[in-house]
Amino acid sequence: MTSHPPGRLAGDACERDPIWDRDVETEAPEDAFVRGAAAWEKQFRHLMERSPFYSRRFREAGVTSGRLSLKDITRLPFSTKAELKQSIDQTPPFGSNLCVTPAQVKRVYQTSGTTGAPSVLALSRTDIETWTVIGTRTYFATGIHDHSSVLTTFGAGPFVAGHTHFVLSRIGCRSVPVAPGDTDRVVFGLKAGLADTLLSTPSFAQYLANKMDTSEANRMGEMAHIVTGGEPGGGIPAIRDHIQQVLDVTVTEVMGIGDIAPSLFGECPQQQGMHFCGGGHVWVELVDPDSREPMSIEAGAVGELVYTHLTREAMPVVRFLGGDIVKIEGSPCGCGRTTFRMRVIGRRDDMFIVRGVNVYPSAILAVVGEFRPRVTGRARVIRKTADVSVTPPVPIEVEVADGHAGDARLKSDIEDAVHRILTFRARVDLISEQSFGESGYKTKLTVNRP
């Protein structure tokens, strides 16, 4: 197997490839603002004229003229997923924020509907192309180029991750699609040498690493790179290092958000955080997670990301609260990109408070991961109520190999580590792999169980 040390991948000299959008990805911040401001001027008029949903909200915010500069965008209200879903429910199937005619809708994705009926995301022909452009920047940044062979476990639909297939086609690499959770075909494809790159969730990459010893990993054909996405984990050292060491690969990660673009941030082989790849099409703000006051996007800042479409035609959003709490990393990067980089700390939806301290399940994963090989690396918080504040001890289920669920010493060790590192008491239950649930796709980090 061709080995690449972490941080370097074969063919990562992206300055030689025309797919890299140098004008956008290496421009100075002031130039990015000028580009964004010009696009926003047209987008604002588009919304005022074509979106009953936003034109009403703008008027309610006291904005009635046909112009509002990008520097004044904070005058506009935030948008939430619940509000957009309500507009669709009131005027199905596309809602009052459809800004094109139904005949101009050329692709429709559906959300998971985990809290009710699925919602829809409509794209015009131009929107499809925009998603492909942003996605191409994202995956190209990770090190996937035209010489790559990529086995992807991202399904073709109904979810937006299916757009990845169009992105891989644009990049020009070999694509080997496998259905999500089809472990046997993934292993067959990799051992047969069909791909040197795997696209999967961190849960699935962990699962592969846990199931293979060193000799098996050495028979994984040409695989040298895993790109993780869909959930937190690829940027957590305890998870990333385990996958890299066992499978002898480089792990990078991507992140998107269905309401904005399925691929929006991509980590380059320098492994120093995910680059923003939506320049010119998406405007990003950072706000304080509690007060929602604007924050500067600068190294070390921690806040919630807020998104505004600059070029979306069919169903654009303005100041959309994405729910991801991130830490901004320094810029520029050794790869040459100047766009900001970030790491996801956790989802606002998953956060809970223990005695005044905000806790994200990803922090618990980082602690649990240090106990390999006695654990698999998967864990989840059990929420007894919908209250944000949780009284300790916090119930945590930790997955262990079958036959080790009765290891009282391990249970005690994990509880002690959580208390020492995260400063709250936990009650750990060890759950066998057979009982914990499927490992083939995403792992829910919090479970409501009264």
**What is the terminal separation in angstroms?**
49 Å
Q: Can you say what the CATH homologous superfamily of the domain at 351-448 is?
A: ANL, C-terminal domain
Helix percentage: 25-40%
Can you count the beta strands?
A: 20
The CATH class of the domain at 351-448 turns out to be Alpha Beta
Radius of gyration: 22 Å
**Secondary structure tally, helices:** 13
Oligomer: single chain
Low-confidence stretches: 1-8, 10-17
Question: How much of the sequence is in beta strands?
Answer: 15-25%
Sketch the major β-sheet: 12 strands, mixed
Shape: globular
Q: Top keywords for this entry?
A:
alpha/beta; globular; disordered N terminus
Describe, in plain words, how this protein is organized in 3D.
Strands 4-3-5-6-7-8-9-14-13-12-10-11 form a twelve-stranded mixed sheet, with helices on both faces. A four-stranded mixed sheet has the order 19-18-17-20. The chain has a domain at 351-448: GMP Synthetase, Chain A, domain 3, CATH 3.30.300.30. With 450 residues, the protein is of the alpha/beta class. It is built from 13 helices and 20 strands. The model is unreliable at 1-8 and 10-17 (pLDDT under 50).
